[in-house]
Amino acid sequence: MARQQVLILYRGSLLAQGIENLLRTERGMDIASLQMRKEESPGGFAVAVTPDVIIVDTCDLGSRARQAIVDLLEQNPKAKVVCLNPEDGKVEVYHKDQRIATKQEELVAAIRSA
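Structure (tokenized):
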């Protein structure tokens, strides 16, 4: 099984940083993270690394969250975009389908299906 390239984009999210630490314990995943400055768009980073999975905290995306997700998918059409939402405790996965994950194993299963 090929190693999955996972990119975590965050601004100041402790949740995203915690997910990064959690995923580093999983086999078969190469984890990279990039901290964005407030004025930076998440789409610009993903082009340089061609990840299989991009993880973002929706709170870090602000009011343009949906547009940022669309931008990430357009720039990385083969990647899944996993959105962490600490406000409702859900994880949304965007690709050809949408999934809801509320447990670590559900998040890992969504990433592995990329």
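The longest strand covers residues 4-10. The two ends are 12 Å apart (CA to CA).
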